[in-house]
Amino acid sequence: MDRIMATEILNRLLAAGIAALAAGVAVPALAGEAPPGTAMITCTNPASGASWQIRIDYDKGMVDSNPARISDAKISWHDAKDGGNYTLDRRSGALTVVVASSTGGYFLYDRCRLEDRG
Prior knowledge:
alpha+beta
C-alpha cells in the first residue's frame, strides 16, 4: 500500500510540474505576441535617400509575400526575388539586409519607421 501511495504522489507531483512548466512557457508567448492585423513600414536608405514600403501581416507571419519570423525584438525574412535576408529591429527601426554572392556578398543598413496599421 505504501508503494502505491508513493507512486501516486510522484505521479501527481510530476503532473503538477508539467502543468507549471506549460503555464510558464505559455505566458511569455502570449505576452509577446505580435499585434494583430497589418502594418505598413516606410524604410529609407540613408546613403541615397531612396524610400520604399513593406507590409507586415502579423496574423499570417508575412512581410510582403515572404514568410517571416516575428518576435518582440525583431522581424526577419528572406526575399527570394533579390536573394536578400532581412532583419528589422523593432525597437530601433534598423533594417539590416544581407545578400550572399559568389564574391562574398554585401550588407546594407537602412532605417524604417512604423506607420498606420491597416
